[in-house]
């Protein structure tokens, strides 16, 4: 049985992308990237939407000679993760690998089944895809990479109308001002 996690990079005011859906403010430096690499080692399954899936194709096609050893290791790990892509606009020809599964919709029961069948962490990636699982209380671990920038508008990391009592279980403050904070749901929720 797996554990459902939600990991994302956010601005100080809680956005994952700016009002134009740009992410250029969130590019990690080497130390922050190493933390992403450490975190992704525990993930066996990714649940993600079309936009995030297409963005992460960079790692499917990554040339290991093009960058750092950490980037090559991340790409290698990313390619081994089972992916469930939630999209009603993609078709099977848009998928990259045999292990990537396309679904038109994802119910709470579907998410529970995926987590129960997983033999590692299941990461739900992208705030739109994660919203219903967060609302339903299925997400057990939240990992935020908080970038010291205020965007003022954009795509929010957490859905409106949700109350979560969390406890901090790990934190790292990086020299560039980014903070990694790992939270688990508090008992009783």
Compact description:
This protein has helices at residues 30-40, 50-60, 69-80, 108-117, 127-135; strands at residues 3-11, 15-17, 43-49, 82-86, 100-103, 121-125, 141-147, 155-156, 166-173, 179-185. The chain is an alpha/beta fold.
Helix and strand topology:
Blueprint: E1 3-11, E2 15-17, H1 30-40, E3 43-49, H2 50-60, H3 69-80, E4 82-86, E5 100-103, H4 108-117, E6 121-125, H5 127-135, E7 141-147, E8 155-156, E9 166-173, E10 179-185
Parallel strand pairs: 1-6, 1-7, 3-4, 3-6, 4-5
Antiparallel strand pairs: 2-8, 7-10, 9-10
Helix pairs in contact: 1-3
CATH architecture: 3-Layer(aba) Sandwich
Category by helix and strand content: alpha/beta
CA distance, first residue to last residue: 19 Å
The residue ranges in which pLDDT falls below 50 over 5 or more consecutive positions are: none
User: How many strands, what sense, and barrel or not for the largest sheet?
Assistant: 8 strands, mixed
Helix proportion: 25-40%
Give the C-alpha Rg. 16 Å
How much of the sequence lies in strands comes to: 25-35%
**CATH top-level class:** Alpha Beta
Helix count, per DSSP?
5
The total of beta strands comes to 10
Shape: globular
In CATH, the homologous superfamily goes by the name Dihydrofolate Reductase, subunit A
In spatial order, strands of the major sheet run 5-4-3-6-1-7-10-9
CATH topology: Dihydrofolate Reductase, subunit A
Oligomer: single chain
List the helices and strands in order: EEHEHHEEHEHEEEE
Return the average pLDDT rounded to an integer: 92
Number of structural units classed as domains? 1
């Amino acid at each position: 049985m797996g554990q459902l996690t939600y990991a994302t990079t956010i601005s100080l005011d809680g956005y994952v992308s700016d009002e134009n859906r740009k992410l250029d403010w969130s590019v990690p430096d080497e130390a922050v990237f190493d933390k992403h690499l450490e975190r992704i080692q525990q993930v066996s399954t990714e649940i993600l939407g079309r936009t995030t899936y297409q963005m992460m194709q960079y790692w499917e096609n990554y040339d290991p000679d093009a960058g750092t050893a950490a980037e090559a290791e991340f790409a290698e790990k990313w390619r081994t993760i089972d992916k469930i892509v939630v999209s009603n606009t993609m078709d099977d020809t848009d998928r990259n690998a045999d292990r990537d599964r396309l679904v038109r919709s994802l119910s709470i029961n579907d998410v529970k089944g995926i987590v129960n069948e997983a033999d590692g962490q299941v990461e739900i990636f992208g705030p739109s895809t994660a919203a219903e699982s967060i609302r339903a209380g299925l997400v057990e671990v939240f990992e935020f990479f908080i970038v010291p920038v205020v965007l003022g508008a954009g795509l929010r990391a957490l859905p409106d109308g949700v109350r979560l009592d969390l406890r901090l279980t790990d934190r790292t403050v990086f020299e560039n001002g980014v903070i990694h904070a790992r939270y688990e749901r508090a008992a009783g929720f």
